[in-house]
Amino acid sequence: METMTQTETCCDKGEQTSWGFQLVLDCFGCDEETCCDLDRGYEFLDQICIHLKMTKQTQPYIFKTCETAFPGKPGYSGWVPIIESGIQIHTSANNRFISIDVYSCKPFSNEDVTEFVQRWFQPKKIETCFIHRGKDIMEKRFRTEEAAA
Question: What is the chain's alpha carbon radius of gyration, rounded to the nearest angstrom?
Answer without folding.
Answer: 17
